[in-house]
Amino acid sequence: PPKKKDIRDYNDADMARLLEQWEKDDDIEEGDLPEHKRPPAPIDFSKIDPGKPESILKLTKKGKTLMMFVTVSGNPTEKETEEITSLWQGSLFNANYDVQRFIVGSNRAIFMLRDGGYAWEIKDFLISQERCADVTLEGQVYPGKGADGNEKVKNKTKPEKAKKKKDTEKKSNGVKEDNRATHQREEL
């Protein structure tokens, strides 16, 4: 049995242990639990369309927090990006979508959704906007109405992979690199 201690001598660890003991027997409602401790919602497989993989994602993300990245077209300043994405957030709010917005660059923002089941409807709204270059959702990049001609590749996935392949091909065709800290200089 633990040694009895005077309450005035309790440190943070003792207080945390005491709180844990009190909460052990408490009945916490399911809605009050943090998202990662809630049981997943049951999936109705009759609503899944095998021809559309997005329908599966919609059902699995329902009720979960989800983030999507949005890129503003042109070369906007951070203030312009703030104003444009604020208008989009206001439009979504008026359509009863709970969306939070965070600016992460001069032309990028994150839209955080409380219910990921609505993500594809919000994505469709965003890509129809004039100043939307693209929307990244679940690793998929969807080009927007404001995308340049070279960006309008339908549903491309993570362009970094293709770049890495090209880099490795260049290395194999060019001079071999070794693992030394200094390289010998080549005379021109």
UniProtKB/TrEMBL annotation:
Which stretches does UniProt call biased (Acidic residues)? 23-32
Q: Note down the stretches annotated as region Disordered.
A: 21-46, 140-188
Alphabetical keyword list: Chaperone, Endoplasmic reticulum, Signal, Wnt signaling pathway
Q: Which GO terms describe its cellular component?
A: endoplasmic reticulum
What InterPro entries does this protein's entry cite? MESD
One example GO MF annotation: low-density lipoprotein particle receptor binding
What are the recorded Gene Ontology BP terms? protein folding; Wnt signaling pathway
Cellular compartments annotated: Endoplasmic reticulum
Basic and acidic residues bias spans = 148-188
PANTHER family, per database record: LRP CHAPERONE MESD, MESODERM DEVELOPMENT CANDIDATE 2
Q: Which family does it belong to?
A: Belongs to the MESD family.
Protein name as catalogued? LRP chaperone MESD
Which organism does this record belong to?
Spizella passerina (Chipping sparrow)
